């Protein structure tokens, strides 16, 4: 029996994701002995500081990557939206399994439209903040850190009037009842990779690459990889107000990308479709750059 050690953060959601991947692996090969190994990352420790000030979402992956390099574990499981689009050559990443609901969730109110003027909306995402404020300048989007449970507790204590969280995380934790409104992807374009799980492993580990490849679903992986190619081509990262969403059509793929200033006062939006995901990503990125994306990215 082959032992597979899976690295994960210790939050309730991260553990759910790692166990889910472990279950998928076991279903594919009942000879695998799966062990979950929890780590506390720098991002977990520095929860009172804005992510953009301390290194972005890469802080959630660095400790797990160190464990991979030291061969303490065989693979690591992340939320794909937390994985930088430009990955170190030491690692490979595979989209694992089906994608959950890609939408953002409004929690604490039944509709975005009924939020009173001056409402304090908690969100740690510049992408969400810029898109929401562009829709309603009377809202105050306030940074919030912590895991899902911590954020919900802050809402219940009255520190915020509403929260914006990922539907995928709430659904996975059995907290779908907390969702007041699932925001349409045209209203709030999701982050690249949102709702998808990533399996990361050392380049050159052909044994692990084969196991990880068994988790890939082509239509899901192609859409996610297309989104990440746009981010990579723009030279952007997770701190930027950039939404990218790709979905499969009967023939080919449809891709929406939106890039905003932090205040939402300027917005570049592109929608295109094509048969090939790579060509589509390149076309959308080039169109954004021609519209002035470099200026917006450099000024964030």
Structural notes for this entry:
By secondary structure, the protein is an alpha/beta fold. It folds into 3 domains: 2-97 and 195-216, D-Maltodextrin-Binding Protein, domain 2 (3-Layer(aba) Sandwich), CATH 3.40.190; 104-183, Periplasmic binding protein-like II (D-Maltodextrin-Binding Protein, domain 2), CATH 3.40.190; 232-298, Porphobilinogen deaminase, C-terminal domain (Double Stranded RNA Binding Domain, 2-Layer Sandwich). Helix content is 34%, strand content 25%. The strands form 3 sheets. A 5-stranded mixed beta sheet has the order 2-1-3-10-4, with helices on both faces. A 5-stranded mixed beta sheet has the order 7-6-8-5-9, sandwiched between helices. It has a 3-stranded antiparallel beta sheet with strand order 11-12-13. The chain is globular. The model has no long low-confidence stretch (mean pLDDT 93).
Keywords:
alpha/beta; D-Maltodextrin-Binding Protein, domain 2; 11 helices; five-stranded mixed sheet; Double Stranded RNA Binding Domain; 13 strands; 300 residues; 3 domains
């Amino acid at each position: 029996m082959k032992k597979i050690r899976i690295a994960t953060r210790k939050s309730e959601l991260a553990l759910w994701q790692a166990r889910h991947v472990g279950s998928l692996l076991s279903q594919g090969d009942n000879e695998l002995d799966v062990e979950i190994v929890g780590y506390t990352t720098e991002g977990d420790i520095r929860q009172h500081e804005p992510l953009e000030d301390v290194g972005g979402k890469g802080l959630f992956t660095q400790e797990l990557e160190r464990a991979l390099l030291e061969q303490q574990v065989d693979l690591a499981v992340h939320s794909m939206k937390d994985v930088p689009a430009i990955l170190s050559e030491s690692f490979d990443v595979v989209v694992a399994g089906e994608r959950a609901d890609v939408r953002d969730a409004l929690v604490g109110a039944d509709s975005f439209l009924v939020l009173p003027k001056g409402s304090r909306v908690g969100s740690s995402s510049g992408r969400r903040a810029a898109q929401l404020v562009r829709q309603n300048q009377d809202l105050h989007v306030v940074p919030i850190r912590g895991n899902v449970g911590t954020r919900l507790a802050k809402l219940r204590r009255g520190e915020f009037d509403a929260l914006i969280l990922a539907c995928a995380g709430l659904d996975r934790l059995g907290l779908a009842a907390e969702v007041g409104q699932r925001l349409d992807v045209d209203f709030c374009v999701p982050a690249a990779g949102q709702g998808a799980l990533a399996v990361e492993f050392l380049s050159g580990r052909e044994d692990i690459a084969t196991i990880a490849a068994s988790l890939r679903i082509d239509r899901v992986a192609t859409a996610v990889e297309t989104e990440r190619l746009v981010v990579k081509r723009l030279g952007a990262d997770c701190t930027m107000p950039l939404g990218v969403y790709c979905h499969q059509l009967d023939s080919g793929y449809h891709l929406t990308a939106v890039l905003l200033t932090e205040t939402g006062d300027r917005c570049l939006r592109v929608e295109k479709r094509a048969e090939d995901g790579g060509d589509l990503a390149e076309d959308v990125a080039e169109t954004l750059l021609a519209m002035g994306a470099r200026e917006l990215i450099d000024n964030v």
